[in-house]
Amino acid sequence: MSQRIETDICVIGGGSAGLSVAAGASQMGARTVLVERAKMGGDCLNYGCVPSKALLAAGRRARIANHSAEFGIDGQASIDFARVQAHVAGVIAAIAPHDSVERFEGLGVTVIQADARFTGPAELVAGDTLIRAKRFVIATGSRAAIPPVPGLESVSYLTNETIFGMPEKPAHLLILGGGPIGLEMAQAHRYLGCEVTVIEMATVAGKDDPELVEQLRKRLCADGIRLLERTKALGVAAKQGGVSVMVEKDGIAEEVSGSHLLVATGRAPSVEGLGLEAAGVRYGKKGIEVDARLRTSNRHIFAIGDVAGPYQFTHMAGYHAGIVIRNALFRLPAKVDYSAVPWVTYTDPELAQVGLNEEAARQQHGDIRILRWGFHENDRAQAERETEGYAKIVTLPNGRILGATILGPQAGELIALWALAVSSKMKIGAIASLILPYPTLGEVGKRAAGSFYTPKLFGERTRKIVRFLLKFG
């Protein structure tokens, strides 16, 4: 090795999780080394959250242009797909300086751009540098999981790493996988004028509340997206400059053809080539094994973000970073708490979830209360003509909030209040008694909360009490 570094903390991976740890540790006085072999910002900035939301924003603008007659505005969107992709690239470029090598070196972090490989329990090699550290943090993220579908290896297909760089618009996009990535890309491309077919072995949005997923399913179908659920992909083949997928549902086979194929069947942790065996770090198909403090089987090595799971969201990467900093720098026994993890599928309307859904709540608690309020009963939603969906709140009989699911406009923003409620073990009265500005979409949640009291408040017993009191003047 041409260079040797002794440091306090070494972070492997310059994605959301690794960058959060590196920035925090360095600014708190720890000697910090960051190793990243590819692009700074990782999957989220370059291939995930940022470009997908930018593409969705473009798609929604197109939909608005095509569906404004009810506002008295006539018109039709003219879509230049190359310029759409330039917009996506521009958004990435605008955010990239925040995640850049220059910024982190300015924070005092030593950044090494190379592959990292452990050579022992307390050292690793990155390029021609040997690094010894008191603590290591593995934040290598995840990559697209490729299913074992026959023929897939012999055709050209897209993943989240390649779909945002296409100069041409797909005529017919086939998507394997009906999870958040698959559905978001399906709707974005449909709004931009593509034919879209989604092939899903189980049901779309399978981790969300089935009742609200059914509403979303209807909207996706109304948008013109073909959903093939409970459908198995038997094989893939090239066909006339495009691709075909042989599928089977209920024993009936069908060939589905398209111009492009996107594989969106989940994520796989990035653990290859790290030399984890030499470091004494246990791992498996689901990623690196960690305890509640995010320590690996080598107590001097932590693992965070997608590579450690169980939730592969960028906001969990930031949460994990805070847990590690408290443990690694301050020796505080901070532990993860996954009881109030929110997530959002950024379709239109958005689908957001936090805490327990109805099924999970019944399994854990038995007797529960379900509260609902529709966006069609909200004045702001009516003014915006975005009235699809509703809020569904799950509580105990005593009113303690167990979870919430929201399908509707800006559901990803609205779920924040319910994440606070679940994490703080609040009761429904705290939300019902809020004073909210009018007219806002947030009133949907407040009205749902208020419905908890409706049976008693407007029941016969209350009427009798009121009539009795009014006898006295």
Structural overview:
The protein is 33% helix and 25% strand. The protein has 16 helices and 23 strands. It has helices at residues 16-27, 42-47, 49-66, 81-95, 101-106, 180-191, 210-222, 276-279, 314-328, 358-365, 379-384, 411-423, 428-432, 443-450, 454-457, 460-470, and strands at 3-12, 32-35, 110-112, 116-120, 123-126, 129-138, 142-144, 172-176, 195-199, 226-228, 232-239, 242-249, 252-258, 260-263, 267-269, 283-284, 287-288, 301-303, 343-345, 350-355, 369-374, 390-395, 401-408. Strands 1, 2, 3, 4, 5, 6 and 18 form a seven-stranded mixed β-sheet that branches. Strands 19-20-23-22-21 form a five-stranded antiparallel β-sheet, sandwiched between helices. Helix 6 (180-191) links the parallel strand 8 (172-176) and strand 9. The radius of gyration is 25 Å and the shape is globular. It starts with a strand and ends with a helix. Residues 341-448 form the Pyridine nucleotide-disulphide oxidoreductase dimerisation domain.
Topology:
Blueprint: E1 3-12, H1 16-27, E2 32-35, H2 42-47, H3 49-66, H4 81-95, H5 101-106, E3 110-112, E4 116-120, E5 123-126, E6 129-138, E7 142-144, E8 172-176, H6 180-191, E9 195-199, H7 210-222, E10 226-228, E11 232-239, E12 242-249, E13 252-258, E14 260-263, E15 267-269, H8 276-279, E16 283-284, E17 287-288, E18 301-303, H9 314-328, E19 343-345, E20 350-355, H10 358-365, E21 369-374, H11 379-384, E22 390-395, E23 401-408, H12 411-423, H13 428-432, H14 443-450, H15 454-457, H16 460-470
Parallel strand pairs: 1-2, 1-6, 2-3, 6-18, 8-9, 8-14, 9-10
Antiparallel strand pairs: 4-5, 5-6, 7-15, 11-12, 12-13, 16-17, 19-20, 20-23, 21-22, 22-23
Binding site for NAD(+): 177-184, 200, 266
Pfam families: Pyr_redox_2, Pyr_redox_dim
Disulfide bonds: 44-49
